[in-house]
């Protein structure tokens, strides 16, 4: 028989243990998350009264706050041949030179001017005995034409000679990316590590690269955010601003993935809303998501048995909350003891930089027909934490206190 004093002590310890493992208070948020006024309408509180409603409201709620695309609608762009979102000229089309590029100048039978040249830091091609020729942002054909005129003007040739100006190697380009991207910053694009150089390609005449394309710069800046206005991406070069329509990068239609040069400035405007149709892998979206996870629930007794890494888990862009919860090993197990789990999502509004915490009951999400309406898309840097069910908490108390403590609690 347990002495009265010991019984009281055990009961007190048990009550403290139960209080410690009870459900935490609901997280507070600065933004009106519960009403659907946060970055994603999918964050809002679950509406119990419309459980069987087949219509999904979140995309409509998200779209209500969108401002019209700066470049006009896709229908308007198609009607005028795609010019609604494109006001560039030939200066952006084709392969253009940037400082540091290696070119090969060939004049048949001429050893004075023929040779390899590097575009100088000032963006010019410097050939012996000739004035520097502007090359930055121009094609080899344009530079070659100026070169032939300079040879005639300098009395080195009576008539314009036959020349060939070929790119042997494209140098990396340093550009700035700002606006509705996840990591606005200067980025370096193009170039390959020395151990990845294709020697046969290097020995061939001419060169080509996809590494200096606009889409590469956007990916290197973290990818475009779901609020980005891809109808009017601004590219500033040499004091002139061009407007590019990149919506084709997301919907699988052609788009002008122009080559960038050092000094280019790229700005992605925002539509000030969350666009569900941008949450998919594309040439301009994040390559993936580094997701922070914490799982200390049953049936897994720790992070290592759950295959949860020490820091982050990589998931594809477009992954949703419930997919990550399954990946977190927070779903399934014994219905009597493990079903009533919940998982909290920690995110941040990329437009306002304000944090948000959303918690969902796993079984509620599993059983609702309109689960997609409350299943948020995950963003880079998000974190997830899985909480034990109430039965699991009591079981843990019994395990810690032992049979005597558990029986004492029940008396």
Automatic annotation (TrEMBL):
Residues 96-157 form the Polysaccharide export protein N-terminal domain. InterPro entries: Poly_export (IPR049712), Poly_export_N (IPR003715). Keywords: Signal. Gene3D superfamilies: Outer membrane lipoprotein wza domain like. Residues 1-27 form the signal peptide. Pfam families: Poly_export. The keyword Nucleotide-binding does not apply. GO terms for molecular function: polysaccharide transmembrane transporter activity. PANTHER family: POLYSACCHARIDE EXPORT PROTEIN GFCE-RELATED. This is EPS I polysaccharide export outer membrane protein EPSA. It comes from Salipiger mucosus DSM 16094.
